[in-house]
Every structure is written in C-alpha cells, then in structure tokens.
Amino acid sequence: MELTPINSKIGVEVGGVQLAKLEGDSLAALKQAVYEHGVAVLRDQQLSPEDHIALGHRWGGIDVNNYFPLDGEYAEIAIVRKKADQETNIGGGWHTDHSYDQIPAMGSILVARTLPPKGGDTLFAHMGAAYDSLSAELKAKVATLRAFHTADHIYSPDGAYAQTDQGTELRGQELKTGATHPVVISHPRTGRKLLYVNPAFTVHFEGMTREESLPLLQELYAAAMSEDIQCRVEWRESTVAIWDNRSTWHFALNDYHGYAREMHRITLSGEALAA
Ligand SMILES: O=C(O)CCC(=O)C(=O)O
Ligand SMILES: [Fe+2]
Predict the structure, then answer these.
(1) From the CB of 80, is ligand 1 less than 6 Å away?
(2) Spatial separation of the C-alpha atoms in residues 182 and 89, rounded to whole Å
(3) Which domains, and CATH codes, for the chain?
(4) pTM for the whole structure
(5) What are phi and psi of 51, to 5 degrees?
(6) Ligand 1 pocket residue status of 112, Cβ below 6 Å
(7) pLDDT, tens digit, for every residue of 158-186?
(8) Which atom of ligand 1 is nearest to 110's Cα?
C-alpha cells in the first residue's frame, strides 16, 4: 500500500490497493490512514455494489441513511444524486454526516458512478487542524461546552431541502432527531482533539439559545473554514473516497448545472463520542 499525503493537514492518496479484496492487516492500515488523514482517495477501483457492501461490513458495520433515496436493489447503498435538470445537490454546504445521532456514523465510503464532464469536486476540512488553530482563550472557552445537533430543520416538511427540487427525492421527512455532544471530542482511535460542531446540524450550545450561541459558533466556523486546512477531491471514473466524520467536514460543490452526477454511499457505523 502506498500512502501519499495530499497536504500536511488533510487527505491521503492511497495506491496499490483494490478495495474489493482488502482485508486483514492491509484493511487495518487503511483504517489507520483514514483516522490520521481524515480522508483517503483511491483511484481505479473495481468495486461492484456487492463489493461496496461487503467492504462496509468488513470495515465494522453499516448505518443506513434515513433520508437519501436508496438503491432499489441494495438497502445499504444511499444514492447521492443530482439529475441533469435539478438545481440543488446533496451536501452542498459544509457539514459532517449524521452528527444528529447519539452515536454518529464513523464515516462513509463514497463511490463515483456518474460524473459531470467537469466540476462536482468535494472539499474536505480537518477538524483537528481547526481545533489546533484556535487561540488558547478560545480553546479554554469551548473546553467544557456541549452542543445540540439535529437534522429536523434540514429534512422536515418545512425544512431546507423541502423548498428545493431535491424535496420529493428524499425520505424521512417525519423523523425527529437530536443529540448533544461535546464541542471538543477526542478521536476515538487516535485521541486527537477535534472541533465537533458543524453549520448544517449544530443548532445551539447546551443551556444557551440559538441567538446566544451564534456568535461563538460563527467564530468556530470561521476557523474551520480556513483554506489551509482543506483539500479538494477531484473525482474521476472509478474513484472512491473514504472519510472520517469525526475529524472532517465536507462540501459537495454544485458547479455542474445541466449534467447528472451520481454517487453511491455506504455509511460506516461509529462509536460513542467523548471529550
Ligand atoms: O457528493 C458528494 O461529493 C458528497 C455528498 C455528501 O455530503 C455525502 O455523501 O455525505
Ligand atoms: Fe455529507
């Protein structure tokens, strides 16, 4: 396995591996690379839907996403799709997946199935680097804070997607979600301190209103959006990305109007989070 960091803060290109056959020590090494670098990019993968699901099980289990359309045949595969005539994409703002769950998903294995001729890249940002960049004063301020996360304002019948042309594609409008997590978590495998709030799902700090929370949330988001802790994944046919939701945010760019883009996502089960 060849590991080539994308930059010093985030991302690793992984060569010399076919995910369909990966197991044992090699799988353990890839997991470690994802935990350390936040996102791994693998090119030229021959990964059928069955291989994709089997890899998810070998990794440690699958969380089925409650909102995205499912592949008709494979309930484990969530379809991340923008049709040629749609305007809105999925994940077109900074977020981390499933932070509204009590035990948020570890991450995802995303496979490119249909790509536009150009555009449709995905940005990733490292929340360990974001935490490191905070001033000592800000680190002290957030050290013991907890924050409430929910997806209701995104997916409910009067939520963000309902107003768009993705509205009718999504499921789960009736679901109620909510979880409170520490604002600074320790990565369950590496122990690294990570900033764990995100603009999509974090609503307020525990014991504070949304209005009271916003100034500090904005300050944290500004640090997390710094370009020098990001990498850009340019998708090609047969590219797979595997990311860690605890240590990264991502942002699917929506710059390919008039073309279809379709990705297959398997969401990997996570573990309890703690400060
Ligand atoms: O389409 C992408 O590149 C990522 C979309 C997204 O946010 C996700 O699959 O979680
Ligand atoms: Fe996402």
Answers:
(1) yes
(2) 30
(3) 2-268 (3.60.130.10)
(4) 0.97
(5) -60, -40
(6) no
(7) 888 888 988 888 888 999 999 999 999 99
(8) 9
